[in-house]
Amino acid sequence: MLNLQYILYGEAVVKAAVENGANHVDISGEPVFLERMVHKYSEAAKEKGVYILGACGFDSIPCDMGVEFLKRNFDGTLGCVETFARFNKGVAGYPVNTGTYDSMLLAIASLWDRGARQVHREITPNPMPQPKYGAPCRFPLTRQKLGAQNAWNVPFVGPDKSIVDRSQYYDFHVNNKRAVQIKTYMCRGSFIQTALSTLWLSIFAFFALFSPTRKFLKAHPECCSFGMFRRNGPSKQQIGEASFDYFFYGAGWARDETPDATRPTKTAVAVCHGPDPGYVGTAACITAAALTLLDDKDKLPKDGGVYTPASALRDTNIYEYLRTSGVTFTIQEREKKEGQLL
User: Fold this and answer.
1) Whole-angstrom distance, CA of residue 87 vs CA of residue 178
2) pLDDT at 22
3) Is the pLDDT of residue 160 over 80?
4) Which of these, 288, 305, 57, 74, lies nearest to 177 by C-alpha position?
5) CA–CA separation, 197 vs 177, rounded Å?
6) CB-based burial of residue 150 (10 Å sphere; 0-12 exposed, 13-18 middle, 19+ buried)?
7) Sign of the C-alpha dihedral computed for residues 146, 205, 159 and 287 taken in this order
8) pLDDT of 141 above 90
9) Angle at the Cα of 310 from the Cα atoms of 50 and 325, rounded to 5 degrees
10) Residues 120-132: pLDDT tens digits?
11) What is the Cα 267 distance to its own chain's centre?
12) How far, in Å, CA of 192 to CA of 110, rounded?
């Protein structure tokens, strides 16, 4: 399913898939919708033996599978990860389609739904132990010089953290593996660009909370976004010139060390690279997820249900499917500097 406004229209497709015994993948990036599907259809999907996978596009295959990739390749015990998403535009620029804009409006409005908070508590009833040493706290606007990623960054308000947290919750309670703490950021370039985009997003999010102003924002996307979003979206040239990099900076302990006995002593870096995230990269991600469900049935969780990508696909050949479509994951060791966690 490729409709972006899943809060409005997505449930009917999920319901039909479960009732008719069909697997389902989608590219929803709306945490409230995704958690609601877990709450309403997990048991029914389990009884039918079908797998329902949301967030199988750029939100959130690169991040969810990237954390899993770093976790399985970390030479020791991985404790926490900081992620930095970087969108690379070509000389022609890149306006985002207003479908994403509309989904942002709905997602922001839904975050204040008290029922959504109750759903979250019910699908994650058993708390996980809090790590003694976690990812460092950073200012909302912070500049990081970490390898190839050298830019001003802001916290990433997309669904990636929510998805990864649920994957780690599953890994801890079902697979008895240590859960990794995650913090997500978006690379924005210069300080002025970062400050202006943060100011715009703050104002946008505030007015998206109220129905009258939300209607105005929806009616005038190009004006209200200063041209960042356009109804026609990017051109073929702009799509061809675009790409993304997702950096994962992990910290943990060596194999012979006791986790949490000391501050993390070991670090590693993973990088996910792919083509234009809005169209080509998202198509590659959801196609890889669908092919994996078809071809790797014996490597999926024993029972059907509603899963995050990593929870369902961590033991499959999805990385190979992604690689053949141009979405690659690589890992490199990185020396830890004195006094530095990540």
Assistant:
1) 31
2) 97
3) yes
4) 74
5) 38
6) exposed
7) negative
8) no
9) 95
10) 999 999 988 888 8
11) 22
12) 30
HSE (side-chain half, CA atoms, 13 Å) at 175: 15
For 74, phi then psi, to 5°, come to: -75, 125
- In the numeric block, which tokens belong to residue 146? 């970490």
- Distance between CA atoms of residues 318 and 25, nearest Å: 14
Output the CA torsion sign for 277, 278, 280, 282. Answer: positive
CB-based contact 326:275 (threshold 8 Å): yes
Length of the chain: 342
Percent of the chain with pLDDT over 70: 94
**Token pair in block for residue 96:** 């985002």
Does residue 50 carry a pLDDT above 90? yes
Q: Average pLDDT for residues 137-147, to the nearest whole number?
A: 76
Copy the structure tokens of residue 227.
């041209």
Quick: pLDDT tens for 85-99.
Answer: 999 999 999 999 998
Tokens 């190009």 belong to 222
Which alpha helices (H) appear in the chain, and where do they start and end? 6-19, 31-48, 61-73, 98-110, 114-123, 160-173, 191-207, 211-219, 221-224, 236-241, 282-295, 309-313, 318-324
Amino acid identity of residue 191, one-letter, is F
Residue with tokens 């460092």: 136
Question: What is the Cβ-side half-sphere exposure of residue 332, based on CA atoms within 13 angstroms?
Answer: 8
Does this model's pTM top 0.85? My answer is yes
Q: What DSSP string describes 151-182?
A: EEEEE--SSHHHHHHHHHHHHHHTT--PPPEE
Task: State the average pLDDT for the chain.
Answer: 90
What DSSP line would sit under 191-248, residue for residue? HHHHHHHHHHHHHHHHHTTSHHHHHHHHH-HHHHTTTSEETT---HHHHHH-EEEEEE
